[in-house]
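This follows on from our talk about sequence and fold. Go ahead and set the record down below:
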Amino acid sequence: MSRRKVSGLNHMPEAVTLGRFLEQQKLEPLREDPLFQEEMLALAIQTLSFSSRESGLSKGGNNGLPGKSLSLPLAGSHVHLEDQGKYLRLRIAEGEEKTPRTQGSFLCAFSGTWEDFCTQAADWMEREKGRILGACEGFTRNLTEQITQGYGLSILAELKKTLGVDLFLLDKHFKVLSWEGGGRFPFHPVSFVTPKLSHFKSMDLLLETPLGIGKWNDAQYKELPLSWYPLAGHQGVLGYIGLGIEQGELNPVGRLFLYKAAVLLYFELAKAQSVEDTERQHYRDFLFDLLYNNFDSLEVVQSRGKLWGMDLTKPHLVVVGEIPGYDPDSMDQLAFQELLDTVSTALRSQPRTIFLERNDQIVLLYPLEGMIPLSQWEATAKKLLSPLLILLEGLEEERSMMFGVGNLYPSARFIHRSFQEAKSALELGQLFNLQERVILFQDLGVMRLLLNLEQQELEDFRNEVLGPLLKFDQENNLHLEETLLAYLASDGDLNLAGDRLFLHPNTLRYRLKKAAEVLDRDLNSLETRMNLFIALKIGRLKSLWQE
């Protein structure tokens, strides 16, 4: 696809370039100057400064340039002009004015007085500034009038007309709010890869905010350029503008107009966000009451749910998910937010699913048409979670999620119970290093019973069964408790247990023999194995008691 510069299109003022400046001042570059490069003429100007060969200081003539640069409210290059008698030396730099990076320099033939030239250049810069700011003010006034008349998002059509590029607007949940295609873009929305916050160098809504690179999902549009402009401010990222251009195509004048429109769009989204936040808080309050059983009767639960579009007369499968080991105080908060965005996007294919984020976990309530046999719970849960599981397969291990699933009950009055079971399944699945992504509470066996007993009673049982072995481990370094748990969890398979512990089978046999001696028990007895396994599991449960 050919690359074109987006400039001078439709209603947008012509850019202020070095070539136009030289043309207006009737200056001709010395093309035989080895430092001259033709592409320099296309560079946009942000500042002009002057210095005389005689004084070496920035100075003006009778226009009184007071030793400071003349600036335009645009991003661009810094151009410094030096009086060298019959020639002018133009030095060009980019970046911050105080710490510029050199782009190049060249000579121009020069006749006339330095003072007159400085005056003419300053007058031209002021006219250019007035031309651009006047056009921008008219553009902004037009957009503001549309907003005050209640046509907030329609300003995107005006921005398209001014920039001459196709574009569209997303909210922070990546929902398309407005689509202005017909040029490079199709007339109707097509699927795109959602923008990632971590892909942007800056999230501040500034004139200099760089565009992010976008991609399309459909292979037929892979050559179609897409760039993202984040709409961010004190309320965070509220949306994105997608533009049908590559990153370097929009000139500084276009960037100014884009910035002005983006500020107004941000405030429009902020107003909508304020209303949404109020509704969302009421919605969250209701879900918290539902999950913690804060209702007086089933009738109240069902009637309140109906107000939010939920049919709580049907059974709901409750799922809790989290990233194992995720620290909410770590620097990985951006990654967690991106993961939530991914989950939110995936759930669009299941509009009836109830979704809540709480304490760095996600809670999902899947409505079913009716009760299903216990033997189908696991398959049903994995089928409902399949859109998320497929998406999570492509993530790094440390950013993937585990899910706990509570038991299924016929009445919404027991959703709170299923929620607690799902949390317990998730906790125990991580505690015992289960390798499954989806862990059902019903599959936890005896551990379900242990969760409901008094901690002191469990601790007493553990000490009665394992007391001598625990004391031996404290005084020696054989790790008999860990060895016994691995052996019993492997159903007595020495090779499997040895692999888990990275031990030779002979070493494992020695440890098991020592454990039997210390405990004075027969490890081949089924009752002994059962008591030992429960006591060992209680030891793992203790890590949860500290919470």
Observations:
- The domain at 452-542 is CATH 1.10.10.2840 (Arc Repressor Mutant, subunit A).
